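Chapter review: from sequence to fold.
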Amino acid sequence: MCLLRIHRPRATAVGLLSICVGCVGFFMPQFTTPAYRPSDLLRVDNLCAANKTSLCGRDHVGGSRVYYLPVFMISRILVGMGTSPIISIGVTYIDDCSSKEKFATYAGIRPLISMIG
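The token string follows.
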């Protein structure tokens, strides 16, 4: 049986890079879309007349923001893929490279940082 050996620090670094790229995708609309103004939604021309037969406002709903849904989905996939090696490989790497007394501390710090954000 042939086992595939990987370089664990490098795999963890690739996971962190994937998380960084995914996070950039999440905050990209903050800088590329116009400012949100709730007062724009209250204009009379945005409201539908009761006797209109077509779907009113369907032409401009979403605008350019509709293209960000795939960006958000791809970003979430990248963050999930980046988290996988950190959780699975990172803990075993810490176990191999630290003393038995310090491993419990290091293993406790990792989920603590994840909970804090």
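Two observations follow directly from the output. Residues 7 and 48 are 60 Å apart (CA to CA). The first helix runs from residue 8 to 32.
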